[in-house]
Amino acid sequence: MTNSQEFTKAAPIIHTLNEAGYEAYFVGGAVRDLLLDLPIHDVDIATSAYPAEVQALFPRHFDVGLDHGTIMVWFEGETYEITTFRTESTYQDYRRPDKVTFVQNLEEDLLRRDFTINALAMNPDHKIVDYFHGQKDLADKVIRAVGNPHDRFNEDGLRMMRGVRFASQLDFQIAPETLVAIAENAGILVHIAVERIAVEMNKLWIGVNWHKGLDYFLETDLIQYVPYLADYKAVFTDLLDYTSDQVQIPNENFAWALFFWRAFERNGKEDLAAIQQQVREFTKAWKMSNKAQKDILAYLDILIYRAQAAEWTLADLYGRDPDQLVLVEGFIEAQQAAGQKSFKAIFNQSKVQTVQDLFDQLPIHSLRDLAINGQDIVQEINPRNKRAIGQMLQFLEQAVVAQDVVNDRAALLAYLDTHHDQINEI
Ligand code: ATP
Ligand code: MG
């Protein structure tokens, strides 16, 4: 589907609202991304109709953000957010507004939006409504606050993080007055929920120009006001020096691993437990999921291993996630291909294909692949206790991965028989 088809598909919603006598437009990120010819995520609609009127016109709806005037409408297999034109008059604590006021006019609605490139509206005939020169800023690749940037950031401090995130994601410059206002108001970020900051930071990491985004994040001193990272400024600078901006980061958990790997290297590569503890403290401070923490630690482990060992061995590959391995090797390979000298100096020549081939050579990929299990051992050997079963399985697992014995039931039992003495020692 080309970009424009997403809008064609949603056009009947606008027509329905128009026929009922209401104004309605496509707004926000989707219009921006259409004009930039980027993939469209969600097509959002703004209308003069009140929520109750939207509900009545579209029986298939969910009331997801009713307090803020948003109704989610289900149409032709897609969902669309339809939001009543509104202003966000009362801001307290620099957070999201605690009260919204519905208005009858599109311009007022667009005025409350963060940046000019996000304050465009479009009708189904692709006629653009542009009160704040958003199209010019799109053409010039500029992120500029709508109206007075100080006011915008004092209303909602998250917008500053959104600004640096868009700089990375779109490879745009931040307009000088907007940038100055971010630097002057950076401290407001302490009032913003860390989960919201994390969303923006993670998008910044995976943006096409993450170096630019991080440069702004450091230059404006936003880093000083996010949880946990204030002491890591030098690590960010170091990471920028060590990587080529030509290579995009494939996912945010790998990004954080890369970051903590630089912290580890800078600290003399000594204390593995300490760096792992920092990752745990950081993910907790940023309220990340257990899965995120686990992934970051796994990527970090792979990076640290690869920076120390010249080649992967089967035993070292065993137990690791092949997708994560390939992703790390792919990043190393791309950094080296981009001519990044530090990556050549630290890591041996990387070949994604080599890890993939090696991984395929592993006789087993987990304990479950072993040709015998605990029950077999109980039946055939009658071990002393449960602990002995575990020891035997672990012994066989290592032997199979080291290719000392083939993964075959009879062979494994025979191997156990002849190596009894070694098992008692583990
Ligand atoms: P993305 O591509 O990440 O979805 P987006 O610009 O669409 O980017 P959304 O969070 O989906 O971001 O918001 C949709 C629109 O709502 C924005 O384009 C902008 O007009 C407005 N908006 C979102 N968050 C804010 C905010 N914190 N302050 C002001 N306006 C906002
Ligand atoms: Mg969006």
From TrEMBL:
<dbReference type="Pfam" id="PF12627">
    <property type="entry name" value="PolyA_pol_RNAbd"/>
</dbReference>
<keyword id="KW-0460">Magnesium</keyword>
<feature type="binding site">
    <location>
        <position position="32"/>
    </location>
    <ligand>
        <name>CTP</name>
    </ligand>
</feature>
<dbReference type="InterPro" id="IPR032828">
    <property type="entry name" value="PolyA_RNA-bd"/>
</dbReference>
<keyword id="KW-0479">Metal-binding</keyword>
<feature type="domain" description="CCA-adding enzyme C-terminal">
    <location>
        <begin position="276"/>
        <end position="415"/>
    </location>
</feature>
<keyword id="KW-0808">Transferase</keyword>
<dbReference type="GO" id="GO:0000287">
    <property type="term" value="F:magnesium ion binding"/>
</dbReference>
<protein>
    <recommendedName>
        <fullName>CCA-adding enzyme</fullName>
        <ecNumber>2.7.7.72</ecNumber>
    </recommendedName>
</protein>
<comment type="function">
    <text>Catalyzes the addition and repair of the essential 3'-terminal CCA sequence in tRNAs without using a nucleic acid template. Adds these three nucleotides in the order of C, C, and A to the tRNA nucleotide-73, using CTP and ATP as substrates and producing inorganic pyrophosphate. tRNA 3'-terminal CCA addition is required both for tRNA processing and repair. Also involved in tRNA surveillance by mediating tandem CCA addition to generate a CCACCA at the 3' terminus of unstable tRNAs. While stable tRNAs receive only 3'-terminal CCA, unstable tRNAs are marked with CCACCA and rapidly degraded.</text>
</comment>
<feature type="domain" description="Poly A polymerase head">
    <location>
        <begin position="24"/>
        <end position="144"/>
    </location>
</feature>
<keyword id="KW-0694">RNA-binding</keyword>
<dbReference type="GO" id="GO:0001680">
    <property type="term" value="P:tRNA 3'-terminal CCA addition"/>
</dbReference>
<feature type="binding site">
    <location>
        <position position="44"/>
    </location>
    <ligand>
        <name>Mg(2+)</name>
    </ligand>
</feature>
<feature type="binding site">
    <location>
        <position position="29"/>
    </location>
    <ligand>
        <name>ATP</name>
    </ligand>
</feature>
<keyword id="KW-0547">Nucleotide-binding</keyword>
<feature type="domain" description="tRNA nucleotidyltransferase/poly(A) polymerase RNA and SrmB- binding">
    <location>
        <begin position="171"/>
        <end position="231"/>
    </location>
</feature>
<keyword id="KW-0819">tRNA processing</keyword>
<feature type="binding site">
    <location>
        <position position="162"/>
    </location>
    <ligand>
        <name>ATP</name>
    </ligand>
</feature>
<feature type="binding site">
    <location>
        <position position="165"/>
    </location>
    <ligand>
        <name>CTP</name>
    </ligand>
</feature>
<dbReference type="InterPro" id="IPR002646">
    <property type="entry name" value="PolA_pol_head_dom"/>
</dbReference>
<feature type="binding site">
    <location>
        <position position="156"/>
    </location>
    <ligand>
        <name>ATP</name>
    </ligand>
</feature>
<dbReference type="InterPro" id="IPR050264">
    <property type="entry name" value="Bact_CCA-adding_enz_type3_sf"/>
</dbReference>
<keyword id="KW-0067">ATP-binding</keyword>
<dbReference type="InterPro" id="IPR032810">
    <property type="entry name" value="CCA-adding_enz_C"/>
</dbReference>
<feature type="binding site">
    <location>
        <position position="162"/>
    </location>
    <ligand>
        <name>CTP</name>
    </ligand>
</feature>
<dbReference type="Pfam" id="PF13735">
    <property type="entry name" value="tRNA_NucTran2_2"/>
</dbReference>
<dbReference type="Pfam" id="PF01743">
    <property type="entry name" value="PolyA_pol"/>
</dbReference>
<dbReference type="GO" id="GO:0042245">
    <property type="term" value="P:RNA repair"/>
</dbReference>
<comment type="similarity">
    <text>Belongs to the tRNA nucleotidyltransferase/poly(A) polymerase family. Bacterial CCA-adding enzyme type 3 subfamily.</text>
</comment>
<keyword id="KW-0548">Nucleotidyltransferase</keyword>
<feature type="binding site">
    <location>
        <position position="32"/>
    </location>
    <ligand>
        <name>ATP</name>
    </ligand>
</feature>
<feature type="binding site">
    <location>
        <position position="113"/>
    </location>
    <ligand>
        <name>CTP</name>
    </ligand>
</feature>
<dbReference type="GO" id="GO:0004810">
    <property type="term" value="F:CCA tRNA nucleotidyltransferase activity"/>
</dbReference>
<dbReference type="InterPro" id="IPR043519">
    <property type="entry name" value="NT_sf"/>
</dbReference>
<dbReference type="InterPro" id="IPR023068">
    <property type="entry name" value="CCA-adding_enz_firmicutes"/>
</dbReference>
<feature type="binding site">
    <location>
        <position position="165"/>
    </location>
    <ligand>
        <name>ATP</name>
    </ligand>
</feature>
<feature type="binding site">
    <location>
        <position position="159"/>
    </location>
    <ligand>
        <name>ATP</name>
    </ligand>
</feature>
<feature type="binding site">
    <location>
        <position position="156"/>
    </location>
    <ligand>
        <name>CTP</name>
    </ligand>
</feature>
<dbReference type="GO" id="GO:0005524">
    <property type="term" value="F:ATP binding"/>
</dbReference>
<feature type="binding site">
    <location>
        <position position="159"/>
    </location>
    <ligand>
        <name>CTP</name>
    </ligand>
</feature>
<feature type="binding site">
    <location>
        <position position="42"/>
    </location>
    <ligand>
        <name>Mg(2+)</name>
    </ligand>
</feature>
